[in-house]
Amino acid sequence: MTGVPALDLAAAVRRGERSATDVVEEHLAVIAARDGELNACNLVTGDAARETAAAVDAAVARGEDPGPLAGVPIALKDNLCTRGVPTTCSSKILEGWRPPYTATAVERVLAAGAVPVAKTNLDEFAMGSSTENSAFGPTRNPRDPSRVPGGSSGGSAAAVAAGYAPLALGSDTGGSIRQPAALCGVVGVKPTYGLVSRYGLIAFASSLDQIGPFANSVTDAALLLDVIAGPDTADSTSIRSEAEPILPQLDRGVEGLRVGIIDELASGEGFQPEVLAAVQQAAAALEAAGATVDHVSVPSAQYGLSAYYLLAPAEASSNLARYDGVRYGLRVDGEDVSVMNARTREAGFGPEVKRRIMLGTYALSAGYYDAYYGQAQRVRTLIIRDFARAYEQFDVLLSPTSPTVAFPLGAKSAEPLAMYLSDVCTIPTNLAGHPAMSVPFGTGEAGLPIGVQVLAPALGEGVMFRTARVLEEAAP
Amino acid sequence: MSQLTRADVEHVARLARLALTDDEIEHFTGQLAVILEHADQIAALDTADVPPTAHPLPLVNVFRPDVARPGIDRDEVLAMAPSAEDGRFRVPRILDAP
Question: I want to staple A212 with a disulfide (CB 3.0 to 4.6 A). Which of A189, A192, A201, B79 is the partner?
Answer without folding.
Answer: A189
